[in-house]
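can u do me a favor
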């Protein structure tokens, strides 16, 4: 079954391009692959579309969880399988849009029977990270798994890899499926890769200014007020932006430094996303800041749908 992936760093215009393509190709079924937009109430900091916009451009996997709930790769894969089945029945094409590397990787590099983590193992890995740092976490994973395919700054996936090792005694690469669930001829991967990094930096800075102007701090404060079980270690609050505002609300950083902290973290995220995109085979790159990007993307989709 055909699928389309639209991947790119934060603030690269994935949402506006997806809207444009959806207007042109009504066969598309939009699917969110952003780990922050799955949560209800995490709107401003995630760049989520408004309610009216979502009515016009409906997405699967947006607003499916409360902020104090957890979502896993296993649940994501099950949800995608269900969406694919419905789309196939309705003669539509799943159009997956986002920048969450972990979820896209679970589709591009499927795992066989990977063990589920436990609170005890998760806490052990978090303690390892806290005591030894991210570089140690990467080097240890590389030592136990010479076939490791995780970037050294991808903290979440490195933690998961170590959890798997503690649970099973085997490296995470041993769980990679021998067969791909998606054949290359059935998938179009469009990667938004800015030719001029300065344009992306400007877009990121502008977005963050808008977030704070729209009431980002108040949004996070309300999330804590309205969700009794929510805390700074909740998965939703570990997202870039939400983590830094949470630290400010907990008096861990000053308001004067808050913008700078969010900007730095967002730029680092974008850098990791670009590195990851470049590592994926068979990606067709488009410059999101080129004036013809909408037309070029539409041509790619049209040709793919006819093939």
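np, heres the sequence
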């Amino acid at each position: 079954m055909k699928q389309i992936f639209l991947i790119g760093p934060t603030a690269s215009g994935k949402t506006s391009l997806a809207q444009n393509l959806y207007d042109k190709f009504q066969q598309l079924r939009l699917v969110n692959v952003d780990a922050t937009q799955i949560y209800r109430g995490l709107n401003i900091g995630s760049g989520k579309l408004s309610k009216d916009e979502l009515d016009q451009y409906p997405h699967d996997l947006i607003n499916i969880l409360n902020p104090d709930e957890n979502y896993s790769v296993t649940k994501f894969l099950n949800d995608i399988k269900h969406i694919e089945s419905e789309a196939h029945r309705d003669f539509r094409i799943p159009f997956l849009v986002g920048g969450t590397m972990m979820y896209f990787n679970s589709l591009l590099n499927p795992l066989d029977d990977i063990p589920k983590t436990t609170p005890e193992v998760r806490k052990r890995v978090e303690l390892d990270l806290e005591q030894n740092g991210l570089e140690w976490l990467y080097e240890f994973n590389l030592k136990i798994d010479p076939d490791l395919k995780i970037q050294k700054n991808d903290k979440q996936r490195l933690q998961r890899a170590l959890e798997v090792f503690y649970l099973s005694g085997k490296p995470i690469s041993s769980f990679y499926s021998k067969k791909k669930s998606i054949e290359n001829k059935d998938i179009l991967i469009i990667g938004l890769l800015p030719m001029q990094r300065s344009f992306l930096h400007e877009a990121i800075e502008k977005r963050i200014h808008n977030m704070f102007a729209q009431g980002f701090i108040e949004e996070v404060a309300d999330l804590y007020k309205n969700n009794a079980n929510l805390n700074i270690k909740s998965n939703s609050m570990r997202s870039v932006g939400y983590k830094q505002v949470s630290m400010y609300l907990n008096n861990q950083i000053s308001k004067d430094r808050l913008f700078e902290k969010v900007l730095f973290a967002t730029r680092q995220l974008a850098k990791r996303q670009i590195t990851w995109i470049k590592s994926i085979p068979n990606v067709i790159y488009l410059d999101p800041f080129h004036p013809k990007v909408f037309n070029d993307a539409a041509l790619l989709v049209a040709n793919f749908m006819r093939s």
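The chain has twelve helices and six strands. hope that helps!!
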